[in-house]
Amino acid sequence: MEDVDWLRSMLSMEQEVRPPGSKKSETKFLNGNCVKLYDEERIVAYAEMRKVGSHVEISTVLVDPEYRNKGYGKRLIEQAVKKIDHNKILCCTKNPAMAGVLHSLEFKITKWPGFWTYFILSINTIKRLFSMLIRLDFRRIWQQGKGIHKYDQFEIIR
């Protein structure tokens, strides 16, 4: 399976992350600011990084179900942190396993990452909502909306 097909499949399956785009747009993500882990020639984990206000956010963290609970999530975040050339890193999650990984890597929960970062995160959330509405992806809207209050923002400052 090509990397782009794996990414689109994972984004379709995982309702808590952004919706999948076209092959062309997902190829841009794969060639952009991201970290990928492989087992042999097969992609098994992926995370994107993007500038958000005064932080760089690690987002869209995906680990193939066959490779979960085997340390791939931690390795993925470690590699992302190493790749980021910025002193403030943010990662938002409501997944207890990912929260454990972030705690183990010395991320701390923050309630307020700053006005500009919070503003950009809010704009990104609204853009994602409109994208899902246009796609009539009501199941994803419901899944993400019902647990929005459970998200924690994890920050590490270097």
Mean pLDDT: 93
Helix content: 40-55%
Strand order of the largest sheet: 1-2-3-4-6-5
The count of β-strands is 6
Number of domains: 1
Largest sheet: 6 strands, mixed
Structural class category: alpha+beta
CATH homologous superfamily (4th level) name: Gcn5-related N-acetyltransferase (GNAT)
Beginning-to-end CA distance, first to last residue:
37 Å
Describe, in plain words, how this protein is organized in 3D.
With 158 residues, this protein is an alpha+beta fold. Helices cover 44% and strands 26% of the residues. It has helices at residues 3-13, 23-31, 72-83, 96-104, 115-134, 138-146, and strands at 34-39, 42-52, 55-63, 88-93, 108-110, 152-157. The longest helix is centred in the C-terminal third of the chain and has 20 residues, at 115-134. The chain is globular and about 40 Å long.
How are the SSEs ordered, and which strands pair?
Layout: H1 3-13, H2 23-31, E1 34-39, E2 42-52, E3 55-63, H3 72-83, E4 88-93, H4 96-104, E5 108-110, H5 115-134, H6 138-146, E6 152-157
Parallel strand pairs: 3-4
Antiparallel strand pairs: 1-2, 2-3, 4-6, 5-6
Helix pairs in contact: 1-2
Please give a handful of descriptors for the protein shown.
44% helix; 158 residues; Aminopeptidase
In short:
This protein has helices spanning 3-13, 23-31, 72-83, 96-104, 115-134, 138-146; strands at residues 34-39, 42-52, 55-63, 88-93, 108-110, 152-157.
